[in-house]
Structure formats: C-alpha cells, structure tokens
Description:
Elements: H1 2-20, H2 30-40, E1 45-49, H3 55-62, E2 68-72, H4 76-86, E3 92-95, E4 98-99, E5 104-111, H5 124-129, E6 135-144, H6 146-153, E7 160-164, H7 170-175, E8 186-192, H8 203-212, E9 215-222, E10 233-240
Parallel strand pairs: 1-2, 1-7, 2-3, 4-6, 7-8
Antiparallel strand pairs: 5-6, 8-10, 9-10
Amino acid sequence: MRGGNAVENAKLGLRLSLHRAGISIGSDPYVNRVARLLDHRGITTVLDVGANVGQFARMIRGAGFTGDILSFEPLSDAHRRLGRRSRRDDRWQAFNLAVGAERGHSTIHVSDNSYSSSLLAMTDRHLQAAPGSEIVGHQDVEVTTVAQIVDDAGIDPRRTFLKVDTQGFERAVIAGAGPVIDELAAVQLELSFVELYEGQELFDEGVETMRKHGLDLWIIEPGISDVDGRLLQCDGLFARRES
C-alpha cells in the first residue's frame, strides 16, 4: 500500500509541475483520439491548412497516421522550416500557399510568434490574452482553395480529413471548398468564443455551418484562455454523420 501511495504521490507531483509550466497531460490525449477517428473512417489523406512549421503533421505521424499529408503555409520563413521537415517524409508535401474563398493574392498580417499570423486583422482581445503575438509586418501571399487542391491532386474527399488552423479565416477556407465540403470525411476548425480577429466566425456559427454540411462535432480540444481563466478558443473536430 505504501508503495502504491508513493507512485500516486509521484504522479501528482509530476502533474502539478507540468500544470505550473502550462502543460496538460491526460490518459487519452487529443492526438490519439484524432488518430483513432482517421483509422476508423479509413482516411488516407490529410489537408493541413495553416501548417506553420509542421506541428500538426508531426503530431499525427507520431500517433500512427501513415497516409498522405499536404501542408499549406503562406509565410515564407515558416514554409522554409516546414519544407525541411517534410523532405524527410516521402508522403508529406509542403506548399507555400494560403487557402481561402477564391484563388488570387492577398496580404497576411505577420505576428511576432508566426503562428498567430492571419489574413484578418487581430483584435486587442487577442493581444491581451497572448502577449508576443503582436503584428510585426505584412507579406503578400498567393491564395488557393480547398476545391482547387482536391482537383489538382486528384484526392478522394470521402477519405480526406481537412484540418484548418488559419487564425479566424476559417469561414473563407470552408467557402472555398465549395461542394467538396459535403463529401469530406472529417474537418477540424479552430473555433473562437470571442472575436480574436476582426470579422471572424465564432463558435456557434462554425458548429452550425458544419452541421448543415453533415458534419457533427466529435472532439473538442481547449486552446488559449484569458487572464481570468475564460476559454477563448478551442479546436473542434467534426466527423461526417453516418447514415
């Protein structure tokens, strides 16, 4: 019994230390649940929109996903790092592109931390909750659409998972999917409860949009919180409604 108490005390001490460092662990991590869904639905392709330097792709690879990954990152510096990582993986491609409602060119607001960069302007609420996300410049970027990606690559949307992490620009990405959105096996969106980027879609609207396209909320992963503990943002994974 005393040995069991010692193990539990050690686990508690480790958990408290990680919590103080802002790190949370659990018995069933988010990535493992994502990997189980991909496997269960027979998903063979992941469209990683808003890839930054490849964090999500590396995460799902580590969880056992062996299919194709197409990563899209508009920032030139982040794309260079993404490209170096993807070159080590024969089934991972990296593209220096933004994804939106239509093809063309646009200007992205470049954040000091890079991953908070967006095609939308950042609000003061975001800056207060995430110091270090200040806008430090702007960059012209080429924009494509999900529909064009699927067409160019000859992808079967019924076996495809679309992950969208575009800092408030999710509505435009979904609009650019066109009828493809009604076929995708699963979609992950970054969902905000308050306006962190000007004019962005909020949580309820995002959930309702996915529901109308036959996608049900499957998994939620908490994101950033305000100084008073209020959850401001989360990742929501939506899976195709099974008949």
